[in-house]
Design brief:
By secondary structure, this protein is mainly alpha-helical. It is built from 15 helices and 4 strands.
Amino acid sequence: MFTFDLQNLWAGIVAFAVLAYVILDGFDLGVGILFPTAKSTSERDLMMNSVAPIWDGNETWLVLGGGGLLAAFPLAYSVVLPALYAPIIAMLVGLILRGVAFEFRWRTERGKFLWDCSFFLGSLVAATAQGVALGALVQGIPVANRAYAGGWWNWLTPFSLLTGVAVVIGYVLLGSTWLNMKTTNALQARMRQFAKWATLGLLVLIGLVSLWTPFLQPVYYARWLTWPAMIYTMLVPVLVLFCAWSILGGLKLERDAKPFIAALGLFVFTFVGLGISFYPYIVPPFLTIHEAAAPPESLKFLLPGVLVLVPIIIAYTAYSYWVFRGKIDSAHGYH
């Protein structure tokens, strides 16, 4: 049963940071994955300009999530990193590639196609690596004597590959609904079509992952497929379906903001589903939140800084989105 204490509070802070990163950086990774679908250089410029003012701020949440995990749950950090070195390094390389592409593609004409490719490949690699890492964590990380007890390739399984594909399609959905909101004319119409197919594809993938997950660990099965727990947990798929219906309805009515907001809701509720499966574990199925947490004195010492820092990050993030609200056009660019 859930109890309010410092360990659970910190778990909530880290979970919030991870969720904020996924839904905020997810759409600009999706824009990068969709980059090859642009019909012209001007369309590619528009796509990049739609996220250029905010993409690096979105990644602040990744730093907060990783730093929070290290500070508040050092044992979990020391177990998860060795288990997921390969996908984490791949993610970081992908993020570096796309970050460099933002700057360099505006400074060259002859080599612009190289940076266009870097933007696309960096986004695709980062998204895939995040999905694979998620799948590896969900399926369970072996722990012995408070250390990672698996091999180099434990992260690579059919389930982790499935979650990798699911995250990529999910980011395509976020990216296409973002571009539907930020662009006009032919590009907007094409993004609406991509968003429809991405919604349907993601529903199928969420269904496959959801059917597979309860059979990975006994605790997952107990949460989702036993009575009376399933009375509460079944609300999550209902809310996911409602969000998908809202996305498709908004696209059909040619709404700008509704599909994107509903896509964010879909991610939030799938994240809630993960939380239902995981709690009270932070490294399933061996380390609970309380077992992996730093000493209470450390958690108390760190808490005031986070309680000041997080509202500041939320405030400047909201302000940046407000400043750069509305449609993007060729007259307003990053260069």
